[in-house]
Design a protein that fits this description.
Helix content is 56%, strand content 11%. By secondary structure, it is of the alpha/beta class. Strands 2-1-3-4 form a four-stranded parallel sheet. The chain has a two-stranded antiparallel ribbon with strand order 5-6. The protein has a two-stranded antiparallel ribbon with strand order 7-8. The chain is flat.
Amino acid sequence: MSEAGSYLDVKVRRLDRRVADRQVAEYVGGDRIADAAQRRDALLRHRNLIRLGLMTGAGVIDLLVIFAAALLAAAIRQGDLGSNNWMQSLGVLAPTYMLAAMTFGAYRMRRLSSFSRSLAIALAALGVATAFGLCAAFALQVGSQFSRLETAYMLLAAVGLLFVTRAIGVKLIRQAFRSVVEPTIIVLADRAEAHAGRVADSLTRHVDIRAVGLKPSLSDPAFFDRMANMVRDADRVVISLADAEERREWAEVMRISGVDAEIIADLGDVQPLALSDWQGRPTLVVSRGPLKLGERLAKRVFDLSVTLALLPIFGPVIAVFAVLVKLDSRGPAFFVQDRVGRNNRTYRCFKLRTMRADLADANGGVSASREDRRVTRLGKFLRQSSIDELPQLINVLTGDMSLVGPRPHALGSRAEGALFWELVPTYWSRHSMKPGVTGLAQVRGLRGATHVRADIEHRVAADLEYINNWSLWLDLKIVVRTMMVVFHRNAY
């Protein structure tokens, strides 16, 4: 045999082996994929039951956490469990915690799968329960029966245990129950729409109704049976069809079948959030506030809790510097200015006065500069240390401001000679939440004068990032980081 023939035989044998190996791998891999699919299908069939079990289990674990924290606090403080203090604390804290947690939606599956939101809501519920317990003890005049040190130990232990159990729970849910927690979607489409909208997602299944021969028939029980079995395990059914009449037929099918379904419709440049109605006519919901009622309540509780804790510390500081401002220069101790607040409503914002009263800019049209002759001697220190902002804690108490949020701007604020909203098209969107004493932009060093367009563009971008990603955990991180940037080179 020639060398060429021998070489060819070797190549053929190697190719045959590779083909055979690939076939074996595909067979074995196919079995594994099939097993995984079967396991996922089993989870999906019992999805609601598993979700209920996970939510119930999370509540039971929280109760066990509070129980363990009470026992641990009693063991540390008393040395034994013979005292009734821990039982009394547990009897007050546990039911109020559970009520607050359920009110805040702590056991919704999407929140249980997010560590930051899950922990933040749990801590907010713990704060509400603690505040209620203290108020109840004061009202009933039984505060002397509780050990303050033991209560503090209990709260610290509860915080630590909640952190650990939430971390473990989130990891477990994400790894073992992802297909249960994440919504499964079935997209019913024609050939063109199915091809255009296909996305690589294991929890989204596209069905080409042309390929499977699925056509609406309101008089055919076999059609309804087939359709119902097809969408049985779906949380959402999305109908994506080019033909308007066909969309209408499928909408009627879904309506009478009682299936949660949505239709993709071409509405031009309008991007609705939901469908509502007015006087029997359908309307498109085109905007909503960034926070739901429970989230706004949690943020408000956080604001009030922290502010009331800070006022005994900073209240005397404000009073002392108010006197010093009066002694340093003529004029009022406080500077009150209209600022843009939530939903673009103006409010009266309080600051310690840092400029000469006769040179103050009521509309804020001129930003302070590094060697601004309007700034008083004491005012320079107040601005550099951010002490001049402390009176805004009063705005937080009155509800005009939040501890964390987009910083409020004066109505006349400018950059490059133009008003902020003339430079940044999305500027007004930053007011969908309450303005804050501090914010994400500030802890990133975006402070000081706005000389050029980029100065305000970067701040608005940070504000919108905060609004879109809000959580109590983020608020807490920003408050802590603010302590580290109180003195900043751009604060003048």
